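Predict both folds.
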Amino acid sequence: MAQYGFGSGSMWATTTAGTTNTPARFGALQEASLDFSANVKELYGTYQLPLAVARGTIKVQGKAKYAQIQGRMFNDIYFGATMASGEINTSVDEAGTIPTTPYQVTVANSATWTVDLGVKYTSGTAAQIGTSLVRVASAPATGQYSVTAGVYTFAAADTGLGVAICYNYTTAAVGDVVTMSNQLLGTTPVFTAVLSQVFVTKQITWSMTQCTSSKLSFPTKLEDFAYLELDFSCYCNQANVLGTISVAETS
């Protein structure tokens, strides 16, 4: 029976930076590709067709589109930076009502509050509702606010008005944080890649010994999942081996 391919298959990447490295799977893989492109030179004489054709350099490029988000994979295959446990979360439009003196709203995650992302009115006059307030250093007037360590201070004239507050805060229980630092030129995270596809019990497996990523995309879209895209190049290891191709069909 002839061998065919169907579906996106499965794909893994393993960093080569250490001696014991955990493989990372491209979860919910949508599509993947390996493209081999060679430069070809033709030798011509006095006739229209070439006398000889020779192949020069070969470029091997890969692409993967997947949906499962993993911090370790970001770090292993692209950034090669520092990773720590925990999360940086965002509270979007947390509701609050400006009280009487001292006219302060303490957000729910004030203990680990890190970054202010703005405030808008949710009640008041028609002109106020939905309008963003202006941040000031201190002593806010109406339409303004100041913030310190997750405590938001407003103007006395805004007492009783509703607000929606956005901010970042940290949690230590779960997650990963990758710090994207400015590294020296030439810093290149290297990983091995395995792409496997099975159809009617017959399998094809591509194993690439050394890869490095040139592009990582994280696009979002209304009413759709986020599909990450990774572009990478493949090259030979120290033994001058690019990789292997394994198929079930006997030649």
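Second protein follows, with its predicted structure tokens after the sequence.
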Amino acid sequence: MDEKTETRLTELKQRIARGDYRIDAGAIADAMLRRFREHDVYRALGAEAQTECSYPDSDTSESVKATPAGPATTWPIQVQWAPAPIVWAA
């Protein structure tokens, strides 16, 4: 991270801690729309969307999960009626 970014980040953290940071919903919406438009332009230029996982191949060994496969089952809850306790007033 460069010095300018670190300074901005520190300032932002201080403003949040003081409680004087206000979110500008209009600026956020504009940024979102700009990114959506950039994505549409990118696709219009013939670029393909990502179709594969960007993570490297992982080990394909057997799972070490100890519980059996399939859904778990539980016994129904049994509820029994009990009369309310008697409270003696003094």
